[in-house]
What does this fold into?
Amino acid sequence: MDVSMPVFAPEIALAAVVFATVFVAYTVRKNMLTANGALAAAFVGLWVLFWAGPSWLLPLFFFFFSSILLGKLNKNHTLAADVKQGKPRDAWQVCCNGGVYAVLATLASGGCAETAQALMLLSIAGSTADTWSSETGQFFRQKTVDILRWKPVPAGLSGGVSWAGTAGGLLGAVAMALIGSGLTGNFGDPKTLLLVSAGGFSGMLLDSLLGAGLQARYRHSESGVLRDSGGAGFVLQSGYSWMSNDGVNFWSNVLLVFFGYWMI
It folds into this structure.
């Protein structure tokens, strides 16, 4: 496997470090990221810049700022959602949503660049679709059902799906597909649009399936309230205590890329 190491002029490298420093300070000050989350995001960005080039930062920025914007607009975060919902994103969230994209960027300048770039788009489209789905689903508060058991669950619970959330996820995948088709030099190319849109949407569904089947769910022993996080009076209802929403995001992304590799 051919992996070519790009070479940057010292002034470009210095400018990138300065921009990353400003990014860390700004996102922490604006309560978008925790301190460790901002450092992790800066590292991911610099890694992608170094290996894949500046244009491939665009999908990362779109995912990050669109997710932040939707989170700010959405005032309907529920108690059923993960305990991190609506809070500044930490390093685990950054790495579980953008880590696979960054690893694939390492191969984006070598002999398998075309494949690596396609998988990068699939990865970030899956993360975008999942985040948009979660935020829009909680915003509209429609009837939500467990994707595996098809029984009503509280809006915001991992593994729950609604029409609004599903539509939001699809829009996120299509938006990333449009960006991706521009990056690959074929803006509006039907093949790229279909691949990334369908892949991102599938990643969202895969995330919901893992959330419903493996992620820990807790029920209050007296009130019967069901949610993703534990606490006083809550007992494990289903899933595994070690499987969090971050873990579901990571493994769904890995599986999406794995299956995508055999499809492209």
Summary: The mean pLDDT is 90. The radius of gyration is 19 Å. Residues 10-263 form one domain.
